[in-house]
Amino acid sequence: MDSHSFQQNFVSLRRLAFAAVASILLLCLVLANRTWTPPACLREAAAAAEGEGGVAQVAAVIGSANHKTGTMQLVCLGKAVQAAVDTNIISNTTASDTAAVAAAGRATPGRPSFLVTYFRSSHECYGLSPSKQAFKCPRPGFPCAGDGSAALSLDGCYFSFPTVPVGVLHFVRDPWDVVTSAYWFHQQEPAPEAWIDVEFRRRALAMVAEGVPRVALEALGLDLGASQSYGELLRTLPEEVGIQLEFWRSVPDLYAMARQYQFFRLHPGGLQLRYEDLQSRWSAWVARIGARFYPRHVAALVDKAKACDVGNWSKDKLAKSNHVTAGKHSDDDRLRLQRALAQRREVRRHLCAVCAVLEYDCALWCGGKQRR
Questions:
Q1: Does residue 42 carry a pLDDT above 90?
Q2: Is the peptide bond before 268 cis (omega within 30 degrees of 0)?
Q3: How far is Cα 298 from Cα 294, in angstroms, rounded to an integer?
């Protein structure tokens, strides 16, 4: 082939390649309703080519659950992964060592490490001063107002990930149910977690430091200097007051969960897991997780993870569990508590804002139509 023919062929191939790329970008533009979002569209195309999720291989899988969104099942799933895949499981992973552990996962191709963590410590949050100068919020993991005090917000934070490829399992739950479940959980005797026995005055200080308005607690008629424990206080307060107190204790976590949901919608390795779906189709979701991150060990993982499915538990085991509370209370109990929350405008405003971000159907309490 002479040089002229070679150049003609090269130009033709280059034109074909350009036309193919242009066609894909045009298709992305159409599918995105004329919004310029080719990266998301291209990620979906890559996912179809490589298998569900488009994550061919990751160095680590990071599992994150907020309080009362499936923490017990997340820890159990991590142990199942360890047994089925023969890989590392690291609990209570912090932001500072996530990168190092994920990088170490490169040593086990096809068997990424499994990290159990709570991601709020990885949120980097910034405020805006009255003079419009941005500054880093003084309390790590919490958005802040212009004076630096913690605030309840869906904005003001970003999330950092290691540069190595990672997968994410993010457990979420209807925020109204999170509050009622937490209310029942924290009333138990003996206390299932040590902090519940700490004096309420210390808990109240922590809540205010995390962005809960002091006036909201005072409006409940509480003695913020009380020496009784948080659990004792919940057990003695009238139900309609106790559930509001639990809401204010829970609301910083609810906002963190919502911010994380927004983060992981944009992450190609992110998989959002609804608590409600996991309870009804646990094995199917475990199989999906396995196919995405541990494709050679799906059957073994599903088998090992059966112990995490509360649907397989005996009545005796359910009764003895202090983590699983929903089955010990009726729907009428749950609705009565949630009605008490909905009657408070400020409480309802926060819960409905979180609900909308998480795309739950909270029309019963929030009105209107929200995406499910």
A1: no
A2: no
A3: 6
Q: What is the 3-state secondary structure (H, E, C) of 152-212?
A: CCCCCEEECCCCCCEEEEEEECCHHHHHHHHHHHHCCCCCCCHHHHCEHHHHHHHHHHCCC
C-beta separation of 290 from 298 below 8 A:
yes
pLDDT digits (tens, 9 = 90+) for 61-75: 888 888 888 888 999
306-356 pLDDT per residue, tens: 999 988 888 788 777 777 776 788 999 999 999 999 999 999 999 999 999
DSSP lists the bridge partners of residue 124 as 158
Give the N- to C-terminal CA distance of the chain in Å, as an integer.
61
- Tokens 């424990």, located at residue: 229
User: Which has the closest alpha carbon to 139: 129, 148, 131?
Assistant: 148
Mean pLDDT of the chain: 81
- What tens digit of pLDDT does each residue of 122-160 get? 788 999 999 989 999 999 889 999 999 999 999 999 877
Q: Output the pLDDT for position 334.
A: 95
Query: Which residues, at least 6 apart from 238, have a Cβ–Cβ distance to it below 8 Å?
Result: none
Looking up tokens 């096809």 gives: 110
Q: What tokens does 293 get?
A: 């991150």
pLDDT of residue 22: 43
